[in-house]
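Help needed: design a sequence for this.
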């Protein structure tokens, strides 16, 4: 039920943001009125989408990072809707970006061939890295014929690790792809931004997959076992290494890595800093000049829309 609800909300959000972006383009001589209110409504629905995901992240995935972020997203989205209605024009850029992010990400959830290719490619590359490091294991097929499951038989026991769509880095690539697609900048600079972001995300994600797999299968992080099991309701003490490696270390470091990648991409596509300024304003209520902080000139809009 939750999956059907969130999938439906995801497509609704993308459709609303895309429609608002189209109206924004068409409504140039009408003060963006219709586009403004449609985009604001899209932000409200976006907040409901993240609220609907909170039980999945917090209770099923047992991810404190994702659970906290999904819960905080509701008031943030409502505030973004309010700011749009009040006339914060720069939020149209972030609204467009969310539409592009969804159009990049969601088809892979619905097209089996694309999903299978991503999963098997990451699983094969992870296999190559771990075999090069001298580890012994098998890669087996799971339901659906996807060759994306690592099977380890170690001194600590038998372990299976599934490579899922969420393990491919697609979400992070969609974020940067959507942001770069949304800005109004020369194509050459956009392509350079993509050339920076995508390979780094792919490489770091591969490191993440290998680290989590080895940490879990070899039980590297069996710290605070009893408190962790009591807090999270785990029945198997072996899951502690998985929780610490994935839900704590990998997710926290992923946030740090995304900030670093954003800084590197913004050197080529400084228009993206406008998004950062809006996010910081929503989070803190204070205005920031990231262009000055990064040392880039603030781009001058060429479409008459003040971005």
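Sure. Designed sequence:
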């Amino acid at each position: 039920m939750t999956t059907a609800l969130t999938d439906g909300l995801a497509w609704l959000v993308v459709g609303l943001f895309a429609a608002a972006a189209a109206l924004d383009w068409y409504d140039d001589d009408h003060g963006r009125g219709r586009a403004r209110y449609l985009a604001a409504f899209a932000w409200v629905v976006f907040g409901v989408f993240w609220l609907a995901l909170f039980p999945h992240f917090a209770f099923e995935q047992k991810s404190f990072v994702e659970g906290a972020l999904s819960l905080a997203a509701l008031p943030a989205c409502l505030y973004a809707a309010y700011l749009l209605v009040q006339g914060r024009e720069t939020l149209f850029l972030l609204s467009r970006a969310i539409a592009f992010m969804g159009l990049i990400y969601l088809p892979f959830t619905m097209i089996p061939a694309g999903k299978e290719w991503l999963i098997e490619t990451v699983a094969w590359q992870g296999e190559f890295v771990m075999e090069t490091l001298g580890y012994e294991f098998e890669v087996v097929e799971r339901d659906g014929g996807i060759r994306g499951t690592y099977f380890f038989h170690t001194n600590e026991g038998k372990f299976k690790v599934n490579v899922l769509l969420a393990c491919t880095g697609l979400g992070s690539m969609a974020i940067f792809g959507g942001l770069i697609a949304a800005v109004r900048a020369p194509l050459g600079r956009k392509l350079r931004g993509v050339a920076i972001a995508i390979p780094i995300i792919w490489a770091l994600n591969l490191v993440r997959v290998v680290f989590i797999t080895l940490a879990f299968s070899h039980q590297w992080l069996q710290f605070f076992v009893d408190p962790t099991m009591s807090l999270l309701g785990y029945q198997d003490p072996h899951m502690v290494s998985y929780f610490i490696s994935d839900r704590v270390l990998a997710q926290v470091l992923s946030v740090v890595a995304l900030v670093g990648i954003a800084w590197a991409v913004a050197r080529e596509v400084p228009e993206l800093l406008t998004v950062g300024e809006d996010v910081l304003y929503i989070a803190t209520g204070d205005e920031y000049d990231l262009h000055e902080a990064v040392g880039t000139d603030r781009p001058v809009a060429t479409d008459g829309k003040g971005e």
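The chain has two domains: 1-88, 112-307.
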